[in-house]
Amino acid sequence: MTDQTGPETASEPPVAQGRLRRRGGAEAQRAATLELFYDLVFVPGTRVGKFSTSFQLSQMKMSERNPGRIKPTTRSGYEYSLNRHVLPRWGHVQLADVTYTDLQQWVTELAEALAGSTVRQIYHVMSSMLTLAVRDRRIPRNPAKDVKLPRVNKERRGYLTHEQVRMLAAAAGSNGDIIVTLAYTGLRWGELAALTVKNVDVARRRLSIVQNVSEVGGQLIWGTPKSGKARAVVFPAFLLPAIQRRITGKGSNETVFSSPNGSVLRNNNFRRRIFNPAVDEARKASPQFPRITPHDLRHTAASLAVSAGANVKAIQRMLGHASAAMTLDVYADLFDEDLNAVSHALDQDAAAHFSGWSPGPSSPTSGLN
Q1: What is the reported pTM?
Q2: Which domain holds residue 66?
């Protein structure tokens, strides 16, 4: 008996109840996040309000009120920040006693030991709870407003070249097709692991991305893709034989990529047993080979697509970003590097038309004085 039954039972999340039903899109997501924090940390019925350490009971309420609105991995991250950092410091403090000065000192202390991105997430948890307390009229204003946060140092991503992708795939042996698929489709790990045979269109070389599987606390959680929307991703022709080998003999509801015993691929297991050793082997053969994670193959897909001339809208659709603006923001470095190529292409196209052209002497333009 395996956990293969997940894809057959996965479905769209139900509509949240209460006032969330009247909201949509980003507003609904933010409202759900705030309500999640309310259920997690506030003791109902208190006049002034204080943070609650009755986490288990509140967690049950949260699950009932906001089904499907918060992704399991996101919720798990919030819960970790709450239990590990927020409640130990603020769990005994009355809301009215939380001050800007104390919050700033707390954030500064966290920044001395933790990465900037981690501190910002912890701050987000705390600030969101206080925002809800303001809305609930438990406190007059949010003391977390204007707290200075540490900078997030963005490390250069490990974009691979075509040659490096092939090198890594070779080092991964029979699992090399997983690496190549990730590097040339831009799928998230959970989308690849949840891909079923019925969602592969061999004739048109398209993958229908309709679900995602994540691992939280050792349990597999099935749901929609990160954006909440399905999408179609085209895979290159050279991948077709590998995809066909994967789906041959499988039922329509079985996953395309599975573990040796037929169960769902788990990121941690794959990374430890296959991916990291393959990276180590590639780095021995080529010291310049970057140290990467499986998610860097998604970034590699974006990089290779940009180099091939794909426009930002096409890359947005491939990656499943909410907007082209998000794609530009995430991969600004790729498009910056592509400016030279654009200039060179324009120069070649215009050269024949401007042969022998001269702008004339450097003097004030006639008629514009």
Answers
A1: 0.66
A2: 6-135
Instruction: Tell which residue, 36, 30, 34, has the closest CA to residue 64.
Output: 36
* Euclidean distance between the first and the last CA atom of the chain, given in angstroms as a whole number: 85
83 Cβ neighbours under 8 A, 6+ residues apart: 55
Please check whether residues 186 and 293 belong to one and the same domain.
yes
Q: For residue 311, give the 3-state DSSP assignment.
A: coil
- The residues, any chain, with a CB within 8 Å of residue 179's CB and separated by 6 or more, are 165, 168, 169, 172, 275, 278, 297
How far is it, in rounded angstroms, from Cα 144 to Cα 102? Answer: 9
> Could you tell me which of 135, 54, 129, 49 has the C-alpha nearest to residue 97?
49
In a shared domain, residues 309 and 248: yes
Reading the chain (369 residues) residue by residue, the pLDDT tens digits are 344 445 544 333 322 333 333 344 455 555 555 555 555 455 444 444 455 433 332 333 334 344 445 677 777 788 888 888 988 888 778 878 889 999 999 999 999 988 888 999 999 888 888 887 788 787 889 999 999 999 877 766 789 999 999 999 999 999 999 999 999 999 999 999 999 999 999 999 999 999 999 888 788 889 888 877 899 999 999 999 999 999 999 999 999 999 988 899 999 999 999 999 999 999 999 999 999 999 999 999 999 998 888 888 999 999 998 888 888 888 877 776 666 666 666 777 777 777 667 676 655 555 555
In a domain, 157, yes or no: no
297 with 219, same domain: the answer is yes
Helix, strand or coil, per DSSP, at residue 44? coil
